[in-house]
Each structure stands twice: as C-alpha cells, then as structure tokens.
Amino acid sequence: MDPGPSKKKVAQGVAWASSAQWGGQLLSFGIYTGLARLLNPNVFGLVAIAGVYIAFMQVFVQQGFGTAIIQRRELEREHVDSAFWIATATASFFGLLSILLEGVIARLFHEPKVAPVIGWLSLSFLIYALSSVPMALLTREMDFRPLAIRSLTATMAGGVVGLAMAYFGWGVWSLVGQQLVNSILGCVCLWWAVPWRPSFRISRRHLRELYGFSLNITGNDILWFFSQKSDQTLVGYGFGSLDLGPYSLASRLVTLLHDAIIGPVQSVALPAFSKLQSEPSRLERALHKFCELSAFLSLPMFAGIIVVAPELVPLLFGAKWTAAVPILQVLAIYGALRVVFGFVHPLMLAKGRPGLYFLMFAIQSFLTFAGCVVAVRWSPDAIALSMVVTMAIFGLFTFVVPMRILEINVPALLKTFAFPGLSSLFMLAVVALTRSYMGRIFAPVTIMVICVVVGVIAYVSTALLIRPDLLRAIWEMVVHSLLPSKRGGPVETSLTPENYVANAKGASPTPDRDLTGRGS
How many domains does the chain have? Predict the structure, then answer.
C-alpha cells in the first residue's frame, strides 16, 4: 500500500507552493498596478478579449495530460513521452490555425485592433505544451521548490519587460510582451529543473490509458471555460474593450486574491488526495483540514474588499478605473463562494470520478452562460451579479448530490466553514461601521488604512477568543514546513480537524495523527 504523503512533505509542499503563489501574486499585483497606471482601460480590454480566445483554445492544447500524469498511480516513461509529443504537435497546429484566423476572430468581437494581439499570443500554445509535462512531473512528486523559483523568476522578468515597454509608449504590446517573456522564461526554468528528457516515441497503449482519464478532464476544462470566462466573453462581445477593461481589472483582483490563498493548497490537495484515495476516512479528514484553513485565510480578505473597494481602486489604479468599483464588490462575493467549493475538483479527481464532476460542471456552466446571456442586456455590473447567483445555485447542487454520492459527510464539512464565515461577517460589520464614521472626517487613504487595521484586529481577536487552536495550527504548519524534523520522519503536530473540534469544545483532543494515519 502506498504509505501516502507524510505531513512533513505536505507542509513543505504547501510552503513552497505558497511561496510561488503568494510571492508570484504579490509581484503580479505590483506589476499589474504599475501597468494599470501607465495604460488606459481599453488597452486591458483588448488583451482581455484576446485572452478569452487563448483560454478557450488552451483547453484543446492541454488535453488534460498534465492532470492525468499527476493522478496515475502507476506512471511509466512511455506515458510521459507520448503525452509530450502529442501535446507539442497539437499546440503547433492550433497556434498556426489561430494566426491564420486572427482577423475572423477580431471581427466576431467587433475589435479589429485585437487581431495581431491574438496572433502573437498564440505563440503561447507551443510554450505551454513544452512546459506542461515537466510541470506535471514536479507536481506529482510534490517538488514545489523549482516550481516556486520558476514562477517568481518568470513573473519578475515578464513584469520588468512589460513595465519598460509601457513606460516607453508601446501600449497594448507591453502586455503582450509581458506575457510572452513570462511564458518563455518559465518554460526554460522547468526544463532546467527536471532531469527527464523525452525520447522520440509514441505508444498507442499508453496514450489510450492517459486518454481514458484526460478526455474527461478536457471536457471539464471546456465547461470550466464557460463557467469562468462566460462573463468576460459576453462583456467583451456586448460592451467592447472599453467596458471590458474595468471588468477584467476587477476580475483579475479577485482571481489574484483567490489564487494566492487557495492556489497553493489546491496544488498540494490533488496529489495528497490521490495518495489517500483508497482510505476514505483519512481523505475526509484531509479535506476538512484544507477547507477550514483556506476559508479562515481567504474569507476575511473578500469581506474587506467589499467594504474598502471605493477607496482601494482609485488609490491603487487611479480615478480612470472607478468603473471597476461596483464590479469588484460583487465579484468579491463570487470569490468567497469559490473558496467554499474550491476542493470539489481535486476531491473528485482523486477519487477517480471525473465523469461525475463533468456532469456537475455541465450544469454549472449552463447556468453561468445562461445567466450571463440574460444579464448582457443591461450592464457589466449585471453580468457580475449573475456570476454570484449561478455560483450559489451550483453550491447547493454540489452539497445535495455529488458530495453524498462520494460519501462525504456534508454537515461535518459545512461545519468547517462556520467559524471562518461568521467571524468574517462580524469583521465586515465592524469595518463597515468604522468606514461610515471615518468617512466624514478623514481622507480616503487614511480611511482605508484605518479600516484594514480595525478589520485585522477584529478578526484576529475573534480567533484568539474562540478558536486559538486554529491560529496555533496555522503557526505550527508554517514552523514545521520551514524547520526540519529532528527525527527525520513525519513531523508531529496537532494539525488535525479532530483536534480543532475537540479543543474548541473543551474536550480531550484526539491523538495526533499525520497524513499517513500514524499516531504520534
């Protein structure tokens, strides 16, 4: 039996993935802020339109091979080589096709200026194909250190190029240059970190084994596009690049925050869940841990954005972006809902149920697309609101049907969100009252600083009073991920959901267990 990942390895994986996500997102945020101040909203709108097309075609380039490599219990070299060559050939085909059809795509969106942008960004297909297999191999082994280095290095280099080009007046091409440099350098770093080199061979048998899983992933990714990109697609189609610019900025901010907090844990969750797929009780305990920690860290962030957005957006990006404020406030609610359902995907993949996820995602995608089609009659704000409504409906469906099929205890899972959710609402109320009072006295910058400080104090104080065990668990996770175990084995810590609940109720805590199920 696979002993599963040790808690030490999972903690180190989270630490390095967090370094990549948090450091990368912090860099991306700073770069994005600088570019937004140098460029006009319609420039971002043009690249966002091109990005919608690139994201859709990327689904067919990926073909789910990376996830299939991570998920397979037994992986042979022929699996890896075959996936690499097929992905490379597919990327080359779609890249050439996109260059040939760039004018047709531009006319579809009534934006002729977007045609050359699509042509140049289509080069990213081949770059991604060259990167996907090395990235999957590192993720499978939970070796997140080179992934973190690659992410930070590529983000920084791309940002320097983009900011320099924007400063010297290159306009939309500064965003194109930023993305291409980021992708190329990231690919180079991955190949430097992975000892594997492809042999020129394609095995039909091994491809069939991969396709048995990856085609379901491809179907899911198509649905992901309609569930996550329908809003920007229809904003661009219905209102043009000028309105898509503020919408894309608001969406980007929410995505940056979501990925910075949830991304590191999700990237570790799939390989960790996969190694525990034959032991349901241990898998469910790990699920509870991931959900509670993610919600505790992310929900107060989204709650704070809802309150301080009117001061935050003009301060960071300038007055020309004020149209993004109401959209950001609505999409922050959407981001909070995404946190609650953030581990459904890796859970189902780990349990070998991509078909169930496909069906569930099909319903969400249909609802999302239909909601956006209806909302496009009014405004981008209405489209953002439709995203919140459809995500809420999808969440109800998730807990009523699929989680029960997977034999997950839904009430126990929902309890993991109780404290983070309620304490975030309490913090939101305190910050809103503070802002309402301070708005009559201080300047916007001062108001935002005071609101942030008050919000942090309110949230942390609530945690110290009611759930000090949760704060301690986060601290232990950080410490044990950075400091080596003296015994060389799995690190012993009280970081388990059972201990959270037991300590919160004042009961005797259950014996400490690591993710391999062994007691301390």
Answer: 2
